[in-house]
Design brief:
Arc Repressor Mutant, subunit A; two-stranded antiparallel ribbon; elongated; single chain; alpha/beta; 10 helices; D-Maltodextrin-Binding Protein, domain 2; twelve-stranded mixed sheet
Length: about 300
């Protein structure tokens, strides 16, 4: 039996930071104490966990297994301590958030001033990424994600659901005409996000009224991994685009875009606030989620 859980926590910190010196600085204890605690841990469990050289540390096979089992324990303890402090002091401290790039720039960023006024003790670190980040490995408090969420290890809270439709510039429609049905989409240029791809090619899932979604083939002229990258091409008359209605509303009202096949809609885009199961709920995360839900409503 391990005599002191603190030895394990010190070991986890050494592995994460890559050296005894860095761990000692982070823990604010002498480097000799860090080294001694790791050595006592190895003696207690009877195996070598770290290979020590003059240049670097590396995990042994046993050390890698032990670290994988213990890092979640360390995370849970750290989050529990933060949650207790925040319950005492109210929402405060750094809040690490990841968002899709265009959503972050055009939707999330304009809300930050109001959130900061409501919670001046919370400081925000925002990571814009097209690729879903590992919330545990990157120590991210909450991710804002659009679309489906296949990872069951995450906890998702739906903030809003945005309807989608097909849009085009008047200039494009003047040159190419309007499709009369989804089957005619294949005859048109389309601006497509990468996630629209299927094994059969590129498709748009569409439905009319309360019918089920059906995939319709499209042929992309431009592909992008973020809708913001398609917007200028859409306005320039480069093709049709399936997009969130709210994102296109200002351009439609200004006459820069027109709704195509208005009786047909695409799949709604759900906006979810996602947290890792390993992370205990904290007042600062709850504050952000509640604020966004109220604003989205």
């Amino acid at each position: 039996m391990i005599r002191d859980l603190n030895d394990t926590l010190v070991f986890v910190r050494v592995v994460r930071l890559g050296s005894f010196t860095a761990a000692a600085h982070a823990l604010q204890i002498p480097k000799t104490t860090v080294s001694r605690r790791v050595r006592e841990l190895e003696q207690a469990i009877g195996v070598q966990l770290l290979r020590r050289t003059t240049r670097q540390l590396s995990l042994t096979e046993a050390g890698a297994v032990y670290y994988e089992q213990c890092r979640t324990i360390a995370d849970t303890l750290e989050h529990a301590e933060r949650a207790v402090h925040q319950l005492r002091d109210g929402p405060r401290g750094w809040l690490r958030v990841t968002v899709p790039f265009s959503f972050g720039a055009h939707w999330f960023a304009p809300m930050l001033a109001g959130f900061r006024r409501a919670y001046p003790e919370i400081r925000l670190e925002i990571l814009a990424s097209h690729v879903p980040l590992d919330l545990v490995a990157e120590e991210i408090d909450v991710a804002l994600r659009l679309g489906s969420l296949p990872d069951s290890s995450l906890i998702a809270r739906r903030l809003a659901s945005f309807p989608t439709g097909i849009f085009a510039a008047p200039d494009y429609l003047a040159r190419h005409g309007q499709p009369a049905s989804p089957e005619e989409l294949l005859q048109h240029q389309t601006l497509i996000l990468h996630q629209a791809r299927r094994d059969v090619g590129y498709v748009w899932p569409l439905r009319r009224g309360g019918a089920r979604l059906k995939d319709y083939r499209v042929e992309p002229s431009i592909l992008a991994n973020d809708p913001a990258l398609l917007h200028d091409s859409l306005l320039a008359g480069e093709g049709l685009s399936l997009a969130m209605e709210q994102s296109m509303d200002a351009d439609v009202r200004a006459g820069r875009l027109v709704r195509v096949l208005p009786e047909w809609t695409g799949p709604p885009q759900d906006l979810n606030a996602v947290t890792a199961r390993e992370h205990l709920p904290s007042p600062k995360v709850t504050a952000l989620i509640d604020y966004l839900k109220a604003r989205m409503a």
